[in-house]
């Protein structure tokens, strides 16, 4: 018998579909594109910065707690399936410095069960208790004093209202409160007051 030349896979009758010949440049391009897509997804997923460490300074608690809740809210896929215990552990891991660590150690000693490695507190209760422990009880009073002495001066009126709104939130006021309307009338420059009250309809809020 005579030797036969082997047939290439493509020449044989087959239902298999062979991939096209890819040169190294094409392969590298596909890999680079895929990796870029993964990086984009990671960037979109992690665009909210993690909270800073909290040192127990009550004047900083409100801003820090907002960072914590914002991070948890924007990473729901990571946190939706974890337990209350794990969320409490996560927050406590950001308490650093003497004041914050004393509170976290006392909280651990009172409410963490070593035998079951679990907390006796729910996440909702923990939220309330850490807020009660670190929120600035004098914040509203301090904001009230600042509102009483707030004036526009030489700065743009937009800057005045930005500061006023921050203080209003801290003091618990709303835009339509008569005290705030009176404060605005006496605190902004006279030219602006005359312009506002020269309108046909006087605004009921600032």
Question: Could you characterize what this model shows?
Answer:
The chain has 206 residues and is mostly helical. Among the domains are: 58-134, no CATH class; 139-197, no CATH class. It is 59% helix and 2% strand. The protein contains ten helices and two strands, in the order αααααββααααα. It has helices spanning 24-45, 58-74, 76-79, 84-92, 98-111, 123-134, 139-148, 157-171, 178-187, 190-197; strands at 112-113, 118-119. Helix 7 packs antiparallel against helix 8. It is elongated and about 70 Å long. It starts with 23 loop residues before the first helix and ends in a 9-residue tail after the last helix. 8% of the residues are buried.
Outline the fold blueprint.
Blueprint: H1 24-45, H2 58-74, H3 76-79, H4 84-92, H5 98-111, E1 112-113, E2 118-119, H6 123-134, H7 139-148, H8 157-171, H9 178-187, H10 190-197
Helix pairs in contact: 7-8
